[in-house]
Amino acid sequence: MNKQRLKAKIIKYFLQSCGSLSIIIVLLIFLFLFKEAFPFIGSPGIGELFHNIWNPVSFQKEEFGLVPLITGSILVTILATIIAIPFGIIGAVYISEVASAKEREFLKPFIEILAGIPSVVLGFFGLIVIAPLIKELFGLNTGLTALTGAVLLAFMAIPTIMSISEDAIKSVPAAYKEASLALGASKLETIWKVVVPAALSGIVASVMLGMGRVVGETMTVMMVTGNAPVISMNPFTSVRTMTATIAAEMGEVTIGSDHYMALFWVGIVLMLMTFSLNMISYRVLKKYGMIDK
Amino acid sequence: MNSKRTGEKIIYWLMRGITYLVVVFIAYILIDILIHGLPAISWEFITGDPEKSGAEGGIFPAILGTFFLVIGTIVVALPLGMFSAIYLTEYAKQSKFTQTIRMAIVTLAGVPSIVFGLFGLGLFVIALDFGASILAGSLTLACMILPTIIVASEEALKAVPKYMREGSLALGATKWETIYKNVLPYALPGMLTGAILGIGRAAGETAPILLTAAAFFLPELPSSVFDQVMALPYHLYILATQHPEAQKILPMQYGTALVLLFLVIGLNFVAIILRIKVRKKYKW
After folding, report:
1. Which end of chain A has fewer surrounding CB within 10 Å, N or C?
2. What is the ipTM of this complex?
């Protein structure tokens, strides 16, 4: 009997340690980002990171200002979100409230495919098809702009926004709808004036999760935004995001150099941005019972 | 009243139009890559080595490399994810600790893939001295897909009704016997769905392996887990952006894109079908 108890205990502790693995990995991620980035504080000095120029490879003076990279990421993210919101939300409302059951069975898996397309394939498609289109459409010198990246990233955020908004809409109690219909409101009025407002916090959370995905996306932006580290809020200029900077430059740096450490600082900023976006949406979704406690 | 009705109809059609615009966009990507990629596909393309730095020849080493990476990833991530899910659904009580685990899973799911790359570089490649290798790449990818597998496994476990557990416990079975013999067999297909989705993600990711495992060209196939590998997504990235004659080798790029897309969407499709089948088979 005692042996059995011991066995049960061992199993429990084993499973528990597997369960806590996620915590350990998250801690390790923070630990290693800071470990690799830390010596930068002493030698070039942390103030360097707040400069306005990113020019890490130079014979005169190397510059490690993160500002152009951060503005690049913000510009692409905001544009992508603006494009994705109408598609994501209207699509979610359509699928959950208007579409017939058959239509829904086709639409949902099909849009899930979009979430499954590898980012490098999307970037390739953007490079070959979307970039020339944008160049032609707006009469630009190059199609590799912030807008091109934003269009493609919008389509990456759409499946996230759609599926979570849809969950939020579904969790609105049927009584709300019935009451509205019973008072003589039409179906459309009920959808936009009762259902959507009731699901609003979940919808906002879905948009933030979508933004988290966009900020962290690497390959697509690296391939289509032109990679020019300039401070600009013009959608038609080339920009360079934080993710693309790490991916493009990490292969060529000497381990332990100033440039290497600066790239880890980029990673820390990126991690903190996505972490806060995710935590806020997690809180909101949890509050409304859409996530297990 | 009638004009109001017409107005509503117009709005419904607008909503339908916007939704289907997304569908059209997806279809356009798929068809474009299919049409331009198919002519490039041949037996030689699939089984041959790249020649003239990828401008001619095949992509076999890249396919094999992706295969190795994916196998390594799933061997690590599947058991850990499954055990983690068993702990969360069957053992964990509502506590600060459990909540912290859940928050960690959400955080992990949101970490940008390139940050996983940095992490893998710092921990596996440098600190543990695996070098850029299959091992380092697989472990990095495993950390990345862990949340996918945990969440899917949890869903599968929760779908098994309570009375399956109660019946077994009432007959004197221990908790683990109950889980092992009366819960896991029914949850397994659902867990596999999560595993397949995870594989699909791991196969398509470029950013993490960029820093931990991938090489554009290797003269020989890898012979151990400490070797670098070629990989499909990385191959496509280099061909499309870094190759000196990128414009001229479009067919090679489209061919690689098609193989990768086929692999990843194929896996997703299998997962979706499996999920539908499982739901139909076990109606409690």
Report:
1. N
2. 0.89
